[in-house]
Amino acid sequence: MDQSEKESIRAASEEISRELKTLVDSQDLDSVKQSQHLILGRLQDSNAVLSHFNDYSTNCFAEVSADFSRNTRVLRSMKLDLDYIFMKLRSMKAKILSTYPDAFPDDSTVEALDRRPDLELPQ
Questions:
Q1: Conformation bin of residue 49: beta by default, left when phi > 0, alpha when psi is -120 to 50
Q2: Three-state secondary structure along 12-78?
Q3: Which part of the chain is the KxDL domain (predicted)?
Q4: How far apart are CA 58 and CA 52, in angstroms?
Q5: Using CA atoms, how far apart are residues 105 and 111, in angstroms rounded to an integer?
Q6: How far apart are CA 83 and CA 14, in angstroms?
């Protein structure tokens, strides 16, 4: 591009920018700028609050995670123990039933034999 083309492009762009300035009111632009600054301030405040909350959550998780993992291990151990106990009970019940077939009554006789109140029902 030679110098005259560059100057004609510059003149045309200046003319377009002057025309665009006449289309938009400067007060409207100022109000848009103020709104943008207000929004920016609110977003920065929100970011600061979220950062603080993330730090707090990280600290709380660090404090609780050891207890949580320990309790999880305890619960898994308890579940294994209970599974073993119920397996043993089932095998003992099967052995008793094979030796004494009338040792455990069927459902119809259980209701007649069990006269204890149901504690889960509201009184």
A1: alpha
A2: HHHHHHHHHHHHCCHHHHHHHHHHHHHHHHHHHHHHHHHHHHHHHHHHHHHHHHHHHHHHHHHHHHH
A3: 20-104
A4: 10
A5: 10
A6: 84
CA distances from 99 to 20, 94, 105, 110 (A): 102, 9, 14, 20
CA distance 101 to 94: 10
DSSP 3-state of 123: coil
**Contact 110/121 with Cβ under 8 angstroms?**
no
Alpha-carbon gap, residue 69 to 61, rounded angstroms: 11
pLDDT lower than 70: segments of the chain: 1, 105-123
Give the tens place of pLDDT for each residue, 65-79: 999 999 999 999 999
- pTM of the predicted structure, to 2 decimals: 0.45
Q: Which residues contact residue 93 at a Cβ distance below 8 angstroms, ignoring those fewer than 6 apart?
A: 104
